[in-house]
Amino acid sequence: MYHQDMTTQVGILGEPLNQKPRRSVFLESALDSAQGPHTTKVAPAPVKFINKPTEAFELNKQRGGVIYETLKPIRFLMRIMGIFPIANTDTELRVFKMTPHWLGYSVIIFLLIVGYIGYVKWDTVEIVRSQEGRFEEAVIDYLFTVYLLPIVINPIVWYEGKKLASVVTELIYFERIYNKVTKKKMTIFFGNKPLIITVVLPVISCLTMVVTHVTMAHFKIIQVVPYCYINTIIYLVGGFWFIQCDVVGRVATLIADDFQTALKHVGPSTQVADYRSLWMLLSKIIRDIGNASGYALTFICLYFFLIITLTIYGLLSQLQAGFSSKDVGLAVNAALATAILFFICNEAHYASNSVRVQFQKKLLLVELSWKKNEVQHEINMFLRATEMSPTDMSLVGFFDVNRNLFKSLLATMVTYLVVLLQFQISIPEDIEGDTNSTSVISATTRAPK
């Protein structure tokens, strides 16, 4: 309950020192004398909020924000797989760092898989071969060695772990800045998309390796396990890149829409400066994402390029003899590798385009004639910042990830396929020579005594 005390204190010049009445709070049935016609009853606070006022205010807030919850499923799975030794070291500020215990766990998983790979290479995978022993079968034989090469991506991701942790922290910190600048929560609906990606990618990667071993080799389930693990971590790294780019693209679109709404109302120039600061932070984040995953993505792109080239060559070389069950595994591998490579390049292009082009469109469509000089100056500064600040997702300066990268990889792939097919055609099929040598040998064995 509270009782209003209407006593007013007056200063030396006669001005009132307290504009609001003082209130005294009493619990119900504590003091009977405090009850009166101007008192209001209030219920006691729950036990868990006694002496803990911050918990009462944090109860209705989302646990970690939209971006944190979006990245959470795939981060958890990558950590369990031993490729993402990064954890949240501050539950309140959401600061991510590489932790020694998760790094030790990742090293143990890596050593176990390397030992398993050594056993698989000792117990050699037996390829289903035809009687002719053609050249393309020797090329396909190399695929089972190439499938094991991506195990080196684990140390690469560990090497980039600090930068990856910094990027995740920056994304979550950016959401807090957005909430303060716009005075509202970030409203981006991802649905179950991150969880579906996290579940579907391991299932598809394992099924791909099982189908490949069933159709192209003498199937032994104990030999498939390292192939499934390595294929899964490759797909998860690509999925993590996809989700990061999707988050940046949607956030950029949301900020552009909020900025367009803010421009409809004549406000102070500081409002435009705040959105320019948001954009500068977002452009820095998109560059940091490319640099943080530079070596890992470079290796993945080259690996997919090699896999697609070899598998498509294996399919094309089977056209003369007709398709068989082995071609199913080749077709599945080629299709999925091409799809993952396309989504990596396309989503990076979408994020870069959303950060730069979306804001430039909003700024160029602004009618400046009826706005103040300060607002016009800030808008011109904003437009100049979008032109001068790079927003391309560059992999440590090697190349930019966009649709042009996918197009150039396909063009190079076609060139290599033409060279391989020409080499296959140039190999003579010396069937008559084999027949003549066989007749000579038989004639020698039948020589007269």
TrEMBL record:
Membrane topology of this protein: Multi-pass membrane protein
Domain of life, per lineage: Eukaryota
InterPro entries, A to Z: 7TM_chemorcpt (IPR013604)
Sorted UniProt keywords: Cell membrane, Membrane, Receptor, Transducer, Transmembrane, Transmembrane helix
GO BP, sorted A to Z: sensory perception of taste; signal transduction
Any one annotated GO CC term: plasma membrane
Pfam annotation, one family: 7tm_7
Main location class: membrane
Subcellular location, record wording: Cell membrane
Positions of transmembrane segments: 102-119, 139-159, 194-215, 221-243, 294-316, 328-346, 409-427
Family: Belongs to the insect chemoreceptor superfamily. Gustatory receptor (GR) family.
Function: Gustatory receptor which mediates acceptance or avoidance behavior, depending on its substrates.
Protein name (record): Gustatory receptor
Species this protein is from: Asbolus verrucosus (Desert ironclad beetle)
